[in-house]
Amino acid sequence: MHLDDAAELRRRYTGESRCGAKAELRRLPAGDPLIPRSSGDQEFLEAEVLRGLLEYPSTYTTRPFRVLWVIPRPTGMTIRFAADADADGLTDFVAWGLFPAGGEDDMRGIPGLRLVNAGHNRMDVGLLGTRARIRLEGVPSTSWREVEAVRQRAAGDAGETAPFRHPELTLSEKAFTQRHSWLVEARRGTAALGSALLRRLGLFRTAADWHDMAGYTKYSDTFAFRMTFTKEMLTSHAEFLRQLTQPDCGIPIVQRMAACSCATGGTDCRLYLTCQPPYEGRVELQFATSWECSASEIAEVLRYAGSPESDIARYVPLRPGLACRHDRAIHGRTLQFLQGLAGSRRAQRAEAAPTDSAGMGTK
Ligand SMILES: [Zn+2]
Ligand SMILES: [Zn+2]
């Protein structure tokens, strides 16, 4: 394949710039796949980050979970969060969705995740006791300082240890990993799939015109994506699946079952997919449709959460004059919810505000 074509294909999956994709491809050892596969602890960490992204509540952004692009390399990867993303939402995700929070029976985030290094608008995170690393770019420096301050404060109040730079597992992490060792093992079993999906996260934007994407996980082996479209922007799920399984860049996945209503003009479909070796685990894809009369409200929510106008115009085409048959109270709830959330976050941060940021390891 010509380098230009290879770069075009790769960036469809990663969201990278044309130059960026070319530069990465030039550095790949000859014969390597266009999107290299990860392995071992690194693979596990990448799958855990995907799980963190999927399990954190809906983001209301036109980027897949706020991610602008990913750079998958043979020995590590970089995730670039969109600069236009809602900085407060991103801070919250890093604080409570990535770093471990909770106890023995309700731990969220990634047990053993540590801050390895932080610099201007980036943080390197790693898995304790391993060489696995992921670089997170586009996390404003003020944001990760807040993350640490908020979590230190919360840990202090609860008489616990904040995980960020703690040199060993915290008591909560130890309790969780001992009590749920089967779960940790099961997650390791699907690490290859999770890592492969994270390394292709860009496809969820380039191949589907949703205006909202949410995720969740099921059992210990299923990565699930729920995409919501306006009626005008519906994406064929067969076409999406074709790209997800494309031989040069895709993942070997087969459809096991579908709850599909396309043939009868329906709008909500669910695909249940199983992986083929070398991968293990499952993927669930949901394609949903939003109410036509919700378009202006959706646009407002996206705008409030920091999505670019060009994306909003593209994915939520406005059709003025649409009749709404709903009770008035039905619309506007999401925006109210987000405004309430922002208010409580501001209060939490104001309380935890570091008096000075010296000694935070800035480079
Ligand atoms: Zn269908
Ligand atoms: Zn309505």
Topology (elements, then pairings):
Blueprint lengths: L2 H12 L3 H10 L12 H16 L11 E7 L2 E6 L5 H12 L14 E7 L2 E6 L5 E5 L3 H18 L12 H9 L1 H9 L1 H8 L4 H4 L5 E7 L3 E8 L7 H8 L8 E7 L9 E7 L6 E8 L5 H10 L4 H7 L17 H20 L11
Parallel strand pairs: 2-5, 7-10
Antiparallel strand pairs: 1-2, 3-4, 4-5, 6-7, 8-9, 9-10
The structure holds zinc ion (ZN) (2 copies).
One zinc ion (ZN) binds next to loops.
Provide structural commentary.
The protein is built from 13 helices and 10 strands. It has 363 residues and is α+β, with helices and mostly antiparallel strands. It folds into 2 domains: 3-198, no CATH class; 208-337, no CATH class. A hairpin with a 6-residue loop joins strand 9 and strand 10 (282-289). The relative contact order is 0.13. The model is unreliable at 356-363 (pLDDT under 50). Bound molecules: zinc ion (ZN) (2 copies). One zinc ion binds next to loops. One zinc ion (ZN) is lined by residues 237, 260-262, 269.
Summarize the structure in short.
The protein is an alpha+beta fold and 363 residues long. It has helices at 3-14, 18-27, 40-55, 87-98, 141-158, 171-179, 181-189, 191-198, 203-206, 237-244, 295-304, 309-315, 333-352; strands at residues 67-73, 76-81, 113-119, 122-127, 133-137, 212-218, 222-229, 253-259, 269-275, 282-289. It folds into 2 domains: 3-198, no CATH class; 208-337, no CATH class.
Keywords:
disordered C terminus; 2 domains; alpha+beta; 5-stranded mixed sheet; 363 residues; globular; binds zinc ion; 13 helices
